[in-house]
Automatic annotation (TrEMBL):
Residues 250-331 form the Mannose-1-phosphate guanyltransferase C-terminal domain. PANTHER family: SUGAR-1-PHOSPHATE GUANYL TRANSFERASE. This is Unannotated protein. It comes from freshwater metagenome. InterPro entries: GMPPB_C, Mannose-1P_guanyltransferase, NTP_transferase_dom, Nucleotide-diphossugar_trans. Belongs to the transferase hexapeptide repeat family. Pfam families: GMPPB_C (PF25087), NTP_transferase (PF00483). Residues 4-235 form the Nucleotidyl transferase domain.
């Protein structure tokens, strides 16, 4: 038996307004909540039991995630107060069944990857390590945890979100998946907030525990920002990112009950949610349109997220924007890179235009 703890209790602040109603791991991606991609990948790697470490909007997980449907045992552990990443792992301890020396996997709940999970666990067990971290190289590591290793693959430091150029000692980052010897989880202090990155890993290194890193150069993405979220969704639909929950990759994905005009153009790994309506002459490219959204004639939506039940008026141009659930964008608006419209907001027709010919 292999057990895993899935950390899904964060507030998803950088993904607001999408995460006001829905916790980040429950946002729909390629037809299912994001967490289902992670759960089914873990299941296919031999994980038989997952403790979902929830806090923010735990009710949404309770309502929509059913282990029986997914072919795996799921136990939900809810923190009354968010305990941080390490505190959440410690809080999950009474829910685990593994023996003190057995490996327990931990996953951040917002990472999409092609990691060979089973190989990571085997590397951990074969090396007799206390903890084994999945690492990946990235172009700009500043938003992550930097994890340099020595010639033997031993972790030498853990630098979470480096503040100064001197701290950028490697491009190798914590990719958000670890294997712990269960007794390491026992040693995390209980009943208070703990950061696994800022407290637990540095403490293990200070105690001279064996902490190994495994560098994997395959697909990796943290879906924590709107543009990363759109990219992850696109990559799943196109089959660039692997998931058992996307059985048939293609140029786009249209979910049940959606109505698509015959001359609408859907490309670039777009997803059209359940019962959404895409009218004549609309172009949707590399975007995510949530359930029940409506896009009127001639609108152009690229690299954007259209929230559930939102409406986009005729001839709008939406590019690199996030439209909250139920918002209504009047005809002829142009919403460009980085614009976020809060849920339920109503934008008058033509209120925002940028083109010189407007
Ligand atoms: N249960 C619970 N309780 N979960 C939490 C809590 C909490 O208090 N706080 C955060 N989490 C969960 C989040 O839901 C997310 O799945 C995971 O822990 C990591 O939190 P993020 O907020 O996404 O962290 P990050 O992306 O800034 O940084 C982390 O991930 C990077 C890789 O994506 C760190 O682990 C970095 O070191 C790492 O490089
Ligand atoms: Mg993250």
């Amino acid at each position: 038996m292999t057990e895993a703890v899935l950390l899904v209790g964060g507030q998803g602040t950088r993904l607001r307004p999408l995460t006001i109603n829905t916790p980040k791991p429950m946002l729909p991606v390629a037809g299912v909540p994001f967490t289902v991609h992670q759960i089914t990948r873990a299941r296919d790697a031999g994980v038989t039991r997952i403790v979902l470490a929830t806090s923010y909007r735990a009710d949404v997980f309770q309502e929509f995630i059913d282990g029986a449907d997914l072919g795996i045992e799921i136990v939900i552990a809810t923190e009354d107060q968010p305990l941080g990443t390490g505190g959440a792992i410690r809080h999950a301890l009474p829910y685990l069944q593994s023996g003190a020396n057995e490996p327990v996997l931990v996953f951040n709940g917002d990472v999409l990857s092609g990691l060979d999970i089973d190989a990571l666990v085997r590397h951990h067990v074969d090396g007799g390590a206390d903890a084994t971290l999945y690492l990946t190289p990235v172009a700009d590591p500043r938003a992550f945890g930097l994890v340099p290793t020595d010639a033997f693959g031993r972790v030498t430091q853990f630098l979470e979100k480096p503040q100064t150029p001197e701290e950028i000692v490697t491009d190798q980052i914590n990719a958000g998946c670890y294997v712990f010897r269960r007794s390491v989880i026992d040693s995390i202090p209980g009943g208070r907030s703990v950061s696994v990155e800022r407290e637990t890993f540095p403490a293990l290194l200070a105690a001279n525990s064996l902490v190994q890193g495994v560098v994997d150069r395959g697909y990796w993405l943290d879906l924590g920002t709107p543009m990363a979220f759109v990219q992850g969704s696109r990559d799943l639909v196109l089959g660039i990112a692997p998931s058992p929950a996307v059985p048939k990759p293609g140029a786009y994905l249209v979910l049940d009950g959606a109505e698509i005009a015959s001359d609408a153009v859907l490309t670039g790994g777009s997803t059209i949610g359940r019962c959404a309506q895409i009218s004549a002459g609309v172009v949707v490219e590399g975007s995510v349109v949530f359930d029940d959204a409506r896009i009127a004639d001639g609108a152009r939506v690229t690299g954007s997220i259209i929230g559930a039940g939102a409406t986009v008026g005729a001839n709008c141009v939406i590019d690199g924007a996030v439209i909250g659930d139920g918002a209504s964008i009047g005809a002829g608006n142009e919403l460009l890179a980085g614009v976020r419209i809060w849920p339920g907001v109503q934008l008058a027709p033509g209120a925002l235009r940028f083109s010189s010919d407007a």
